[in-house]
Structures are given as C-alpha cells and as structure tokens.
Amino acid sequence: MESSSSSRGVPESTIEAVERTLANLKLVETHLLEFLSLANPDVLDEMPPLQRAQSLFMFAKATTTIFALRLRTTGIHPDEHLLKTELDRVTERLSLYQDKLEQVINISKEPSRRSTTLNYQAATRFIEHSLPELTPEQRKSMRDISRGEGSKIKYMERSTHKKRKYDTSEKQSVKAAAQEFLEKAARELFGGNTDGFKGPLIKVDSSSEDEPVE
C-alpha cells in the first residue's frame, strides 16, 4: 500500500483522510434523507410551533453548511466566492435566530410561575375596616374569610385560579387583582335581590330621609 501510494505521489495520511471523509459523507447522506422527510408541509403543520421552528432552523443551517462544503470539495474557498457577502449575511442571521430560539427553549423549560399573587386575608381585613356600616353578622363573616374559614374565600380562590389558567397571555397587575377581589366580595355580601342587596343590609331610599317623622 505504501509503495503504491508513494508511486502515485499521494501520502498515506491523505488517503486515510479521504476514506474517512467518504465514510462520513455516507452517514450524512443517510441522516439527511431521513431529515428531509420532515420538510413535508403536512408533517410541519402537525408539529408544535417550537418544534417547527427548530426544524426550519436546522434546514436553513444544513443548507448553508452543505453549500460551503460543496465549494470546498470543488476547490473553491467560500471566502473567495462571488456569494461571500450573501453567505456572511445568512450566517449572521442564522446566528441571531439561533440565539432567539435558544431563549424560547429555555423559557419553555422553566416552571410556570404566577404573574400576580394576592393575600386574600389581608384584603378582607382591609375591606372590613373600609366599611364601618357592616353589621355584626357581616363583620363575623368577613373575619371568617380573613382567617380562611369561610367557603367564600375558597370559592374566590378557585375562581381566580381558573381565570389565571386561561389568561396566561397577560400579566394582571396588583391593582386589577385587588379590584377584582373587591367586586367579588361586594357580590358575595350585597348582591342577590331586586334591590341589589342581600342579608342584613337594606337599601335605604334617600328620598325617605327628607320626609318628616310623624
């Protein structure tokens, strides 16, 4: 083998490198044919958005790499080709897209976190002190809620958690969460009958206050 390679003037190391390259090219061809099957539009449509973005990015990167390899195997350096500027632009954009894709992948792996949390017990105590006209029964109900003993607090927690589950695209501010809690608490305490009040609280007609007492 050495005599034949020496007679041709080709070093043994070069022949071994060529053989390794040919073997690697066969592996690339095998994997590339399998990978190209994913380029079917019907297959891409069935993929989740993140997986589809990864596949399209890999297609673009593989195309650029194979084109550069083709130039080198034909004796042309990519930096000396007429499309060098275009290749540099594509490479720069692919690097940018890769960074963005990695950020999205990292975010998708993070555990879901609540955008806003509200201390219902503290909010209930705030409502109690803000409404001095509450009856003793209503004050007791508010204290039960603030201690987490009432059924109302459980209902409001379930309702808020359910709303947060289907509203993950927007981050609810603390002010909005507090306003939502106040409205729910008002409906629990006052809403129900035709006058808009329920329980010991009774709506007083303001006109009756002007009438003289007989």
From TrEMBL:
Q: Which GO terms describe its biological process?
A: maturation of 5.8S rRNA; regulation of gene expression
Q: Where in the cell is it found?
A: Cytoplasm; Nucleus, Nucleolus; Nucleus
Domain of life from the UniProt record: Eukaryota
Principal subcellular localization: cytoplasm
GO MF, one example: RNA binding
Q: Where is this region: Disordered?
A: 189-214
Keyword vocabulary terms for this entry: Cytoplasm, DNA-binding, Nucleus, RNA-binding, rRNA processing
Q: Which family does it belong to?
A: Belongs to the C1D family.
Query: What function does this protein fulfil?
Result: Plays a role in the recruitment of the exosome to pre-rRNA to mediate the 3'-5' end processing of the 5.8S rRNA.
Subunit text: Monomer and homodimer.
What is the protein name stated in its UniProt record? Nuclear nucleic acid-binding protein C1D
